[in-house]
Structure formats: structure tokens, C-alpha cells
Amino acid sequence: MALKDKINEDLKTSLLAGDHFKSGVARSLKAVILNEEVAQNKRDEGLDDATIEKLIAREVKKRNESAAIYDQAGRSELAENERAEAKVMSEYLPEQLSEDDIKAVVLRVIGETKSAMGLPDLTISQAGQIIGAVKKELGNSADGATVAQIVKSQLN
Which long-range contacts (CB under 8 A, 24 or more apart) does 134-140 make? Predict the structure, then answer.
């Protein structure tokens, strides 16, 4: 089942169950997907699952950032709501890899890049290239900030 269809089915199920919170989250995801379809002029054919996963990951990141800001402002009830929304949205994403799994991929990509470039060592200036290659390989199964942190720690 396509990811968009799964979100639609979950919306119907949550509405029938009277779960206003989950139905609200599903509606907001549908709105984000629709906005992107209109922006890309793909309203008729729709977006592929990989693009929808990227949109959901972006929404999860927004919710987590908002929660951190609410915590700093002493508004813990709003922060909890944002975290709960992020948790529901995360159910539509592929399972996230552990830091050890990400580190293994980063080390392999660094090794491959060193041999391809014929360099004994890479510098921090090549971090963007490594991060891009790792993100391309792992897709939405790894958080970009975590990948960047691991790459930078390995290059230092």
C-alpha cells in the first residue's frame, strides 16, 4: 500500500474511532502532501513514497524543534503535544538506524571516497560530500543531523 493511501486509511480509521488527535495529525500530513503536489504540479499523478517520506521527516523535525523551543519557554504542555504529533508522524517513516549502524556506513563511505580521490586522509572540507553520499545511501532511515555529527567527528 502506498504511503499516501496508508495515511488516508489511518485518517478514516481514527475518525471512526473518535480519535481526534490522530485524525488531526493525519489531516495535517494530507495537507502537507497536497501542498507539495500542487507546488510540483503533480496533483493528478501524486508524489512517490520517497518524496512523501521526506515531507514527513521534515514535519517531524519541525515538531521536535518546536517542542525544544516550548521547553525553553517553560510551556511543557505545548512541548508534549508537539512531541506526541512527531511520534505519530514517525510511524510513517522507515525505522531509524542506530548511531553504530550510521557510523559503519560513514566509515565505509569515507574509505571509498579516500580511495576514489587517491588521498591518504580527508579533511573537514570534504564533510559535505561525505554527508551527501551517506544520506543518499541511507535515505530517510537516518536523521541528517546525526549523520552530519558522526561525519564531522570522524573527519576531525
Answer: 134/102, 134/105, 134/106, 134/109, 137/105, 137/109, 138/97, 138/102, 138/105, 139/50, 139/53, 139/94, 140/50, 140/53, 140/54, 140/56, 140/57, 140/93, 140/94
